[in-house]
Every structure is written in C-alpha cells, then in structure tokens.
Write a structure and sequence with these properties.
It contains twelve helices and twelve strands. The chain is an alpha/beta fold. The strands form three sheets. A six-stranded parallel β-sheet has the order 2-1-3-4-5-11, with helices on both faces. It has a four-stranded parallel β-sheet with strand order 7-6-8-9. The protein has a two-stranded antiparallel sheet with strand order 10-12.
C-alpha cells in the first residue's frame, strides 16, 4: 500500500514536471521593427513586401513610415525602447541616427540598413541594397548607347538631376554615370547649356519630385526656349515623371530620360514612348534577401554577404549584400512588368 502511494505520488510529480516542461517549450515570438520613409511610392511597396514576408515566417512586425527626419528619429527611438530582436531602417537622412542608435548598440539590438547605408555610426550591423555603382554605370552606358556616342553621335544637349544630398547612394549614382559621360562633355558630343554638372548643383532635396519641378521649369525657359533638350539624367522614376510633365507643358519633344525604381507609372510611360528607360530595383529581390539577413542575425548566425570593402560609412566598413538591378525599356517592359 505504501509502495502504491509512493508510486502514485511519483507519477503525479513526473506528470506535473512534464506539463511544466511543455509550457517552457513555447517559443518566444521574434519581433522586427521597420522604419521607412514615405517620400516615394517605392518605399511603401518595399515596406509592404518586407512585412508580408516576415509575417509569413512568423515574425511580429512593427512597421512605421515617416515624412521627415525628425519623425523618423522619433520612430526609431520608440522602436528601440520596445526591445525588438532586430531593427531595419531605410533612412530619410543617412547621417541622422548617430545618437539615436547608441541605445540600440547598448542593448545589442542588430540594426540593418535597407537600401540606404547609415553613416557615421558603428551601431549598424549589416547593409542590404542593390549594387549602386552598377546602377550609375547602367544609366551612363544606356545613354551612351542610345545616342551612339562611341560611334561619334552628337552633339546633343543634356541636363543632369541627382537624388537627395543626405543619401550616399545618390552620390554614387551620379559619380559613376559621370565617369562614362564626362569624356563626351569634354569633346563636345554632349553639351550642358546650363553648365550645372556638380552634385551640389543638380541634387533634388529629399528625393522629393516636387523639388525638381522649379529647376526643370527654369532650365527649359532659360536655356532651351530656342533649342532642344535631348537628354535628361533623372535619378528616379518620380522625378522623371515631373520632368516629363514639364516637357509636355512646354510643348517640347520628349528627351532620352532615365529613371530608377521600376515604378508601375514608369512602366506605363515607357510603353507610351515618354520615358526611355528605368532601372528596376525589384522589391521582391531586395526584401527576400533582407528577410534572410534578419533571420540570420536574430538566430545569431552569419548572413550572406557579398561585399566587405565598398561601403565605408565613415566609422566602419559595413558588411553588405548587393542585389543586381535590371534595365527596363520598350524591349522588355511588357514581359517584366507583368511579373
């Protein structure tokens, strides 16, 4: 009898321990904070895609969009206070998070820069983007081929626009494009009537297309009232759209004009023969790569990296994964836009 009671008590203790053990096996839900701008339509698409993929992998996603640097700084501070397992930042101003991210570093929260590198901070863990040098090269090479510059084509009138001054990518785009086009400016095959060719002269504040409108209006009125503007280097699709609106308003023939992001509106303009080409940064490609990077850092493993030399943020060389962009024009817009 005593043995039976002892056996029952033992079994009860084992059963209770088993129940307790079952409770401990429940995994903690991993949380990711995403802080993106809402300054262009592509950021919303990127954010929605990233959130969807992360939730499919059972992450809890806190995603915030901001219109100003101050708003984004506040959102990042709030995200850090919630102690997420990872923070992903697409910065409005790449240099605006030096102080903000100190708390993330103290808490050992991994920080990933999405599309735009975070400058002057060693709190950034990794960087996921497209090959920005290749984007600049692609713009220059397409214009070179379209105008048959290698074959002696020209002279053609050209004007330049660049992205926001606080975005290092914008500097890379213009620098790489100009390496290809500068020889033709020097020999007269390309002519910039305004003389505005430096980054400071042609940058569009905050990448905001509305900020490009006054400048293209002035260029057309002041330098091309009696001449044709044959080529415009546009740093993205939203700005290209504004530039083309002003060409239409002025009754000017459409120029050879670049774009970037692969926006649906740009695809339509390409079909209509208005915009010449865009370079697509497929959000599905970048966000899928970023999700794999997030999973690796949350699990404490090494994410895939293919660049450990080119992205010096002023404090450290940031390990990066660079996806491959794709040029889209009338020859392939219908097949690619349908995907």
């Amino acid at each position: 009898m005593k043995y039976a009671k002892f056996l029952c008590l033992t079994l009860l203790l084992i059963f209770a321990a088993a129940l307790s053990g079952c409770g401990n096996t429940e995994e903690k839900v991993k949380t990711v904070a995403v802080c993106f701008p809402n300054t262009t339509s592509s950021w919303q698409r990127n954010g929605d895609s990233l959130k969807k993929l992360l939730e499919e992998d059972n992450f809890k996603v806190d995603i915030q969009f901001s219109a100003t640097v101050e708003e984004q700084q506040s959102q990042v501070k709030d995200a850090i206070a919630k102690n997420p397992d990872c923070i992903v930042i697409g910065a409005i101003d790449s240099a605006a998070f030096v102080d903000v991210l100190q708390d993330a570093q103290k808490k050992n929260i991994p920080v990933i820069g999405f599309d735009r590198i975070l400058l002057d901070t060693d709190a950034i863990s990794y960087y996921a983007s497209f090959d920005n040098g290749a984007i600049g090269d692609g713009m220059g090479e397409y214009i070179e081929a379209a105008l048959n510059l290698k074959g002696g084509g020209g002279p053609y009138n050209i004007e330049f626009f660049a992205g926001g001054p606080s975005d290092k990518n914008a500097h890379i785009f213009l620098t790489n494009t100009m390496k290809i086009l500068e020889p033709y400016l020097r020999n007269g095959q390309l002519v910039c009537r305004s003389g505005q060719t430096t980054f400071e002269q042609v940058a569009v504040a905050d990448w905001n297309s509305a900020n490009a409108r006054p400048r293209i209006q002035e260029l057309l009125n002041k330098y091309y009232s009696d001449a044709t503007l044959n080529v415009v280097l546009s740093p993205n699709d939203d700005i290209a759209g504004v530039i083309l609106e002003e060409f239409e308003r002025a009754g000017k023939p459409y120029p050879v004009i670049s774009g970037l992001d692969g926006d649906p509106a740009a695809f339509e303009r390409i079909r209509e023969g208005k915009q010449t080409f865009t370079i697509a940064k497929d959000p599905d490609v970048l966000t899928a790569k970023c999700v794999r990077m997030i999973k690796a850092v949350v699990e404490g493993t090494q994410p895939d990296i293919n660049d450990v030399t080119n992205y010096d943020n002023g404090v450290k060389i940031v390990p990066a994964y660079l996806c491959t962009p794709m040029i889209i024009d009338r020859t392939n817009v219908n097949s690619l836009a349908a995907k």
